[in-house]
Write a structure and sequence with these properties.
Layout (H helix, E strand, L loop, with lengths): L2 H11 L4 H8 L3 H8 L9 H14 L4 H11 L16 H10 L3 H26 L42 E7 L3 E8 L4 E8 L3 E6 L3 E5 L5 E5 L2 E4 L8 E6 L3 E4 L1
Antiparallel strand pairs: 1-4, 1-6, 2-3, 2-5, 5-8, 6-7, 8-9
Helix pairs in contact: 1-4, 4-5
Amino acid sequence: MSVGADLARAREERGLSVEDVSSATRIRAGLIRSIEADEFEPCGGAVYARGHIRSVARAVGIDPEPLVADFDRSHVEEPVPVPVPNQPTDPDLAARAERRRPNWTAAMAVALLVICALAGYGVYANSKHKPNTAASTNDFPTVPSPSASPSTPSVVPSAPPSAVALLPSRDAVVLIRVTGTKTWLHVETLSHRVLFSAILNHGEAKTFRDAHGLTLVIGNAPAVQLVADNQDFGVPRSSGNVAHVTVKPAGDVQFV
């Protein structure tokens, strides 16, 4: 038995039509018929074919993993992007590397504290040498902090709350929010590691991140809002109702 034949047999045993499976998975009926005939070219690539096989298998009540394994044995694997040397390939490693970078905000705060301390010492020394003369404004050194004044202690301002947020993300980041009824969503990394494959209902939202990039198959594109690398794309472009999206770092977003 082939992958397509196993899916067709399981569908028929459950008494489901192709249209029933199409409604449950948001995959076009014509594409389901092609898969049951072991014609995977219309899927648009091995990544999308795997996602469709998993979705249809779950809809007809069978384990998708043996079918995906059979598909991989009979199809040439797509080239896997080679990771850049010395770059973390796991989000947790990337986060730890980010934490090892110099904390310029803290360094600036320490420098400002030293400047304020020196200014305060200058004020004290000047008043000690001129006890009977009222100090004018020009007697005090200029301090580059609006909070420092001759009569009140200098206060070190905290870093702006947006200082860290303004740093560009080094990962590919995607937010999917369901604004319509529901959608089927399949998300993989560029190295084919599955991050998510299930149905999202109205009001649900999911965020995904990877250092190298992500591929998404959205079954009901008109029902979702897509935000990728801080860009709000609204409803993603799709072929019919299915959208195929590739997101790479630095805002590289492609719709297939």
